[in-house]
């Protein structure tokens, strides 16, 4: 079973922010495949279903972004997941321009506190990632204010299209593997 985790912050005030692009993408994927992400399990909202014939567990950690590893490591242990093969994490990346996708089979945290937490919780950085570019902070703006801010209307249009492509990229990972997804979407 694949574990697909979208990162974000659970409170309503964070809905639609740059930092919650992982939640937004997971919601779109769940809607596309009619999977209800409502069950409370291991400090996360989860939903089981099938995507492209593969059994999946969709995960929205409720531990806030910086502690995402707490719930993801509990779920990986509970389901005895081979995280190198079975875990895909969707999250925001300020190092990428707005709307750019970057698929990777592994890697460092790159300064992202949610990914740092997952690496610490799992004891490995070998897990799949779907990084979604939200753009770097403007000069003079605080990083926290930037990632917890909302997209401009023009950027929101780009991000809405990117969420669709990110869902396509995840489906490609499930059907054809990470390399095929990287070749098609990076």
Any overview of this molecule?
40% of the residues lie in helices and 22% in strands. The chain has helices at 21-32, 68-78, 83-86, 113-122, 143-147, 153-176, 178-185, and strands at 2-6, 39-41, 44-51, 54-61, 87-93, 101-104, 128-133. Helix 1 (21-32) crosses helix 6 (153-176), helix 2 packs parallel to helix 4 (113-122) and helix 6 runs antiparallel to helix 7 (178-185). The two termini are 25 Å apart. The chain is built from seven helices and seven strands. It is globular and about 45 Å long. By secondary structure, the chain is of the alpha/beta class. The longest helix has 24 residues, at 153-176. The chain has a seven-stranded mixed sheet, sandwiched between helices.
Sum up the structure in keywords.
186 residues; alpha/beta; seven-stranded mixed beta sheet; 40% helix
What's the structural blueprint in terms of helices and strands?
Layout: E1 2-6, H1 21-32, E2 39-41, E3 44-51, E4 54-61, H2 68-78, H3 83-86, E5 87-93, E6 101-104, H4 113-122, E7 128-133, H5 143-147, H6 153-176, H7 178-185
Parallel strand pairs: 1-4, 1-5, 5-7
Antiparallel strand pairs: 2-3, 3-4, 6-7
Helix pairs in contact: 1-6, 2-4, 6-7
